[in-house]
Amino acid sequence: MQFPLVSRSGRIRKLVAEHRDSDISRVELLNLPGGAETFELAAKFCYGINFEITSSNVAQLCCVSDYLEMTEEFSKDNLGSRAEEYLESIVCKNLEMCVEVLQQCENLLPLADELKIVSRCIDAIASKACAEQIASSFSRLEYSSSGRLHMNRQAKCDGDWWIEDLSVIRIDLYQRVMTAMKCRGVRPESIGASLVNYAQKELTKKSSLWNPSGHTKIDLLSTDHERLVVETIVSLLPVEKLAVPITFLFGLLRSAVMLDCSIACRLDLERRIGSQLDIATLDDLLIPSFRHAGDTLFDVDTVQRILVNFSQQDDSEDDMDDASVFESDSPHSPSQGALFKVSKLVDNYLAEIAPDANLKLAKFMAIAETLPTHARTIHDGLYRAIDIYLKAHQGLPDADKKKLCKLIDFQKLSQEAGAHAAQNERLPLQSIVQVLYFEQLRLRNALCCSYADDDRKPVNHQSWRISSSALSAAMSPKDNYASLRRENRELKLELARMRMRLNDLEKEHVCMKRDMAKSSSRKFMSSFTKKIGGLSLFGHSSSRGSSSPSRQSYRTDSKVIERTCASTD
Fold first, then answer.
1. Where would one find coiled-coil regions in this protein (predicted)?
2. What are the residue boundaries of the structural domains of the chain, listed by start?
3. Can you tell me the distance from the alpha carbon of 179 to that of 166, in angstroms, rounded to the nearest whole number?
4. Residue 157's closest CA among 141, 181, 133, 178?
């Protein structure tokens, strides 16, 4: 009965040869890949019993044929060549079969890796997915009304059907598949969609990982797999922005904090989130704190690091070459709209965490000061958050209150917020005085605007100065520089026009002086004759005790006449 096995298996032939002299009735095969079921299939093959090679057993047959040395050296068309032929001609042509073979290889490592079963299936999956994606892209090409070829973005993309199939692979093999797809040039959006689908299937077993309001405890004995999944998925994230939703990034970060993943993993997520923080929501930022009971309700330190990443991204773009830095429409310049959105998000976050009794003043101020000064165009949100903090921490010393209120630019408060601040007893007296001062300025400017144009001119300069300063504060340094540069050019042009006008006035002045010098004597005699005529006309005035200019002129002219007559005599 042993002859068919001996004739086709080199390993069994050696074992039998080693014990030829002894009467053996049993041969022990240690660490047989695939176990008893796979050996039964190999035995059937040796005894000529027909069975079907499928994608669910081909990996086991390849491994057991290698273990038993069932190669062409011992028998023609042996089990090894039959299994290899099926793997190459059938399995590697079909993506679903490759995924099923990879699943079977999970229990056959490292032998399946040594036989390159895993690598061949991974390469086949990556090639097939890339080809499907290219074909899908071509199917969405269409001609526009002008005759140009363009991509129809509204058409459904059918090239990513493989995403669901890959979600059943073990995480280590899934990582190798994703790496191969990246090398093949699969779109980052497809890679991201696959990562989202895989993470949701592996991690949603712990509902609190994805639910911001969930506080269920995790079984510490079952966290190793989840930690490995999170760290692996973070390492596979595409470098392109928006390849995955920012909500998914926050979910990974919340999971990384809860599962105590590596520092590199968390820092990578914080950096990615910081680069697109302007599309985040308040619920995204509310990351629960999973430390000891005396800590804050929410993880404030993580949010602060995210804000630092956002600000440093802003600064790194500020360090571009001068040719593009100071152009307000430059694509490299930071978006003022993004800064404005993040400032509102931060103010809402501060208002949400302010009632926490364990929140220290230093952490609250650190988050408020993370953004640049020009990020906030209006300080109503910041004032509201500080007011909530003061209300929740009534025992705060006056010095700390003054330090906290220095964060508010009371000139940037709206009329409603200013009216509330003027009557807010929680604010320090110095802050209330500032509010009243700016409210008085605003009221005076509003009243002066109702005056006539002549009365309004000096006030308009002050009003323009205040509004201009507020506008400058609302602009980023680059936009502010570009605006100032344009104003400088306009001022230079105006100065050149004034110089030309001054030259014309000087010429006119010289001509007038020359004409006055020529006609000075004639004018004196003419004016003297007019004065004599005026004496004869107004000599008999009936006014008494009058000290009018005409009476004084009359007296002066009389003295002049007397002196003239005396000199004539």
1. 481-515
2. 4-93, 335-448
3. 13
4. 133
